[in-house]
Design brief:
about 450 residues; alpha+beta; Alpha-Beta Plaits; Archaeosine Trna-guanine Transglycosylase, Chain: A, domain 4; Rossmann fold; 3 domains; 20 strands; about 20% strand; transferase; RNA binding
Length: about 450
């Protein structure tokens, strides 16, 4: 079971059964433990085309799968989204069974392996003595994070098998240096046959600039829902690690200006690194608390008043109200929709705490949005209180906001709660509810995700 707190699982199931139809606990748990069957690659349209990147990936996958002795998966264009490629992975490799010895890796490393990655040195926590370069090993996730680094015997704690591979670094190189680096295990028999796209993209560059970027399908839709123009001034609140930020930069053709905020200095560095990898120069990132990102004015001045002239934007936050044409609020959330999830220690009380933070961030987003401007609110959780109930609250607090439908819509409608109309719910997008029939489509195969697009109505009053 992926959640340590049964109440969290019960909460997800209750909302799914109320709004989606019957979903069993077993179906949901199996769904959460498996990676999406489709790998999505966002094309860096600033430096290349989808046709060129498709050709590059097809050639690289042909080599990768020739080594495995099976046909390579097909790389396809998407019928509605013009700047992504979709690789439909093969199904679970049923014949893969664990062997000895067992190598332990951290939970994050194991999740990456399930989505097609090899094992890199920082993720390895334990290798039994007597194992050498070239040996076949089984890779296991340390579910509870209790395996001591450098452990030299078979680990007997709770673990999850993710596949078999060939060891390419020995114990000494992995555990006697402060910061181990490089490839540690080449995964020749992963539990799920997801292609190793990350390494391909890292090597497929133009002048050192990556041609593509791995991103979940619903995340790509957030940028498109903003309906961006190259002259816009954009604010991305809670922007790390920068996947959506860099997509915005690409959609704006590396023009205009994108401001990215996050509280963490380390996370801001990630945004800057990803921007550099993709050759984007229209992104400026600040380590700043997004709740405090606006210069406060009396709240009654926000209601029904449209400011035509806005002071020049400061060089750094906080910013004047009404400063931005577009605002993205990909809010911190309980992340209950992430896949694969092998173990999540979150408790119900913590899940229930996110809505309070999300409302504070929503206030900041609304304060900074221009009249006539558009904002997108998104989360990677199934939790209704972090999704539709936040929008219901916002429409009550800010009557000058309205829910609008994006140009590209792939998700299921939102859930009807509170004052939300049927039209509102149809405009929203929900992803990742497991298909009860077992046949996964583009929506149910995705991570659990919620998107709502809103516009600030231009009032006639002053």
């Amino acid at each position: 079971m992926p959640f340590s707190d049964n109440e969290v699982l019960d909460k997800i199931l209750q909302s799914m059964n109320n709004y989606e139809g019957p979903v069993s606990q077993e179906t949901l748990c199996n769904h959460l433990k498996t990676p999406p069957n489709r790998t999505v690659i966002r094309v860096n349209t600033v430096v290349t085309s989808k046709e060129i990147l498709k050709d590059d990936i097809e050639k690289a996958l042909a080599v990768q799968y020739d080594f495995k002795g099976v046909p390579a998966p097909i790389v396809q264009f998407h019928s509605k989204i013009d700047d992504i490629l979709v690789v439909e992975c093969n199904q679970k490799t049923e014949k893969v069974e664990p062997i000895y010895p067992h190598v332990m890796v951290g939970l994050a490393c194991a999740v990456a392996v399930l989505r097609g990655a090899n094992v890199y040195a920082p993720g390895v926590t334990a290798i039994p003595s007597g194992v050498y370069i070239g040996d076949r090993v089984s890779v296991f996730a340390d579910i509870l994070g209790q395996c001591k680094r450098g452990w030299n015997s078979e680990y007997q704690g709770q673990k999850f098998f993710v596949g078999n591979g060939l060891l390419v670094q020995n114990r000494k190189d992995l555990f006697t240096v402060a910061v181990p680096s490089g490839l540690a295990i080449n995964m020749i028999e992963p539990l799920f046959d997801c292609p190793s796209i990350g390494d391909i993209l890292h090597e497929d560059t133009i002048g050192g600039i990556q041609k593509g970027f791995l991103q979940n399908l619903p995340s790509v839709l957030c940028g498109h829902a903003l309906n961006l123009q190259s002259h816009h001034l954009i604010l991305d609140l809670c922007a790390a690690p920068g996947g959506k930020t860099t997509h915005i930069g690409c959609l704006m053709k590396n023009k205009g200006k994108v401001i990215a905020l996050d509280k963490s200095v380390a996370k801001i560095k990630r945004i800057q690194e990803n921007s550099t990898k993709l050759g984007l120069t229209n992104i400026t990132a600040f380590a700043f608390d997004s709740i405090k990102a606006y210069i406060k004015i009396p709240e009654n001045q926000l209601r029904g008043v449209d400011i035509i002239t806005v002071p020049p934007i400061p060089e750094s936050p906080p910013f004047h109200p009404y400063s931005f044409d577009r605002v993205l609020l990909d809010a911190p959330c309980s992340a209950l929709g992430q896949r694969p999830q092998l173990y999540n220690p979150i408790r119900l009380k913590e899940v229930q705490s996110f809505a309070r933070l999300q409302k504070k961030l929503f206030v900041a987003a609304v304060q900074l949005l221009k009249p006539g401007g558009r904002m997108v609110y998104s989360t990677c959780t199934y939790n209704v209180s972090e999704n539709e109930e936040i929008i219901d609250w916002a429409l009550g607090k800010f009557p000058f906001l309205r829910v609008v439908s994006p140009d590209i819509k792939l998700g299921k409608p939102g859930y009807r709660v509170g004052r939300l109309t049927e039209e509102d719910c149809i405009a929203m997008q929900r992803f990742g509810c497991p298909a009860s029939c077992g046949s996964q489509n583009e929506n149910s195969d995705a991570i659990g995700f919620f998107i709502c697009c809103l516009e600030r109505i231009i009032s006639k009053s002053v």
